[in-house]
UniProtKB/TrEMBL annotation:
Ranges for domain External alternative NADH-ubiquinone oxidoreductase-like C-terminal: 345-402
Alphabetical UniProt keywords: FAD, Flavoprotein, Membrane, NAD, Oxidoreductase, Transit peptide, Transmembrane, Transmembrane helix
Native source organism of the sequence: Flaviaesturariibacter aridisoli
Record domain FAD/NAD(P)-binding: where: 1-321
Protein name as catalogued: NADH:ubiquinone reductase (non-electrogenic)
Gene3D superfamilies in UniProt: 3.50.50.100
One term of GO molecular function: NADH dehydrogenase (quinone) (non-electrogenic) activity
Enzyme Commission number: 1.6.5.9
SUPFAM superfamilies to which the protein is assigned, alphabetical: FAD/NAD(P)-binding domain (SSF51905)
């Protein structure tokens, strides 16, 4: 059975590892990057707490001893289910089973200005770009000509009050308190504003209301301005326009307000539902298309317990991959298939040092503060691929905890769009007197 897996996120990589060295399977894993990205820690890359290499793991290294898994680094262009082939940027690949695990990307809700000017954080590259622009803004603030320009550069707007927005806001608040005043003594960081905007009635809408209240209290304690029932209508790169008519001056808006599935060309539009997700049955099969399965954030599986589809989290993606691996092996043996049922083991979010919230559904428990923070750290260390990566992440966390510092505040010019001076500006700088 030739199994082609497109996407090496939590679902795609887990499925490939479950089929690794299994007799009767030939597996091809395709991704546009040559590494697996640990998405829950993108915000720590963006805030200079971790290096990108600490949360990325080379795909080929994961299959050094594999006899049946091969890797291709390229993008999927089209699915042709009638011919049972896919078209990538360089070749046409046949399959017996196609597994789409392309995940989801940032949802800008069709707003072109926000798409152009706001900063998303759905990949390692985007997290690095955000970090460089964040630091560059303070370099520019030191040289700002007016107080208004300086304030605009120091205002940070985060749109979206889910786990990403909450964790990022908390990390930036701690940088403002412990790190940035030492780096930039010329600036008054009492003027720096970190604003978290969300259109809902509470933060962390998918978690217990207790966790929402605790997270908001922790953020406000750190000096983050939380604005609920607040929707960003437009952003031109300098000013945020709100739906209620208000405006906020800022040169950095971080967009964490929603995601949408990466549906490839060739999939029938009638199968795509809310959130740009593909409808699947209880075995992750796409309705009406033979041999095509969808996993993770891209899959919309309606069950009695989840009438709107499963939560788009890593645990659901991993469990779906494990269930599909079981079914593919059962299919080869002629055995009965197993329906997928999500086992919710809980949810969590961290806000800052010794501050986190954890919900456990069975038995129903709620943790907060230091204990929740330790649970959060332990689970994330366990999920990171590679002993070396776990060690480096742990050492970075210990170093930051002891020193209240991060040491990765580097700017690489190619990662941000620097304004190029005109010939007249260059001449004025060289010869200010004009002689």
């Amino acid at each position: 059975m030739k199994v082609v897996i497109v996407g090496a996120g939590f679902a795609g990589l887990r499925l490939a590892r479950k089929l690794n060295n299994k007799e009767g399977f030939e597996v091809l894993l395709i991704d546009k990057y040559n590494y697996h990205q640990f998405q829950p820690l993108f915000y720590q890359v963006a805030t200079a707490a971790l290096d990108a290499s600490n949360i990325s793991f080379p795909l080929r290294k994961a299959f050094h001893k594999s006899r049946n898994v091969r890797i291709r680094v390229e993008e999927l262009w089209q699915v042709q289910p009638e011919q049972k082939v896919i078209v990538t940027e360089s070749e046409t690949i046949p399959y017996d089973v196609l597994v789409l695990a392309l995940g989801a990307d940032t949802n800008f809700f069709g707003n072109q200005n926000v798409t152009t000017n706001a900063f998303p954080m759905k990949s390692t590259v985007e997290a690095i770009q955000l970090r460089h622009r964040f630091i560059q803004n303070f370099e520019d603030a030191v040289r700002a000509g007016t107080p208004e320009d300086r304030q605009r550069l120091m205002n940070i707007i985060i749109a979206g009050g889910g786990p990403t927005g909450v964790e990022l806001a908390g990390a930036l608040a701690e940088m403002r308190k412990y790190v940035l005043p030492c780096d930039y003594p010329e600036l008054d960081f009492k003027q720096m504003k970190i604003m978290l905007l969300d259109g809902g009635e509470r933060l962390l809408g998918a978690m217990d209301p207790k966790s929402s209240a605790d997270a908001q209290r922790y953020l406000e304690k750190l000096g983050v301005e939380v604005h609920l029932k607040t929707i960003v209508k437009d952003y031109d790169g300098r000013n945020v326009l709100l739906a209620d008519g208000g405006s906020i001056a800022s040169e950095m808006v971080i967009w964490a307000a929603g995601i949408r599935g990466n549906v490839p060309a060739g999939i029938d539009k009638s199968l795509v539902v809310r959130g740009n997700r593909i409808t699947v049955d209880r075995y992750n099969r796409v309705h009406g298309i033979d041999g095509v399965y969808v996993l993770g954030d891209l899959a919309s599986m309606v069950t009695p317990r989840y009438p709107n589809g499963h939560p788009q989290v890593a645990s659901a993606a991993i469990q779906q991959a494990e269930n599909l691996a079981y079914n593919l092996r059962a299919q080869q043996k002629g055995e009965a298939l197993r329906e997928y049922e999500y086992k919710d083991k809980g949810s969590m979010a961290t806000v800052g040092r010794n501050l986190a919230v954890v919900d456990v559904p069975k038995p129903k428990l709620h943790f907060r503060g230091l204990l929740a923070w330790l649970i959060w750290m332990g689970l994330h260390l366990f999920l990171i691929l590679g002993v070396k990566n776990r060690l480096f992440v742990f050492l970075n966390w210990v170093y930051s905890y002891i020193t209240y510092d991060q040491s990765l505040r580097l700017i690489f010019k190619e990662f941000y769009r620097a304004k190029q001076p005109t010939d007249a500006t260059k001449q004025a700088q060289v010869n200010p007197a004009g002689t």
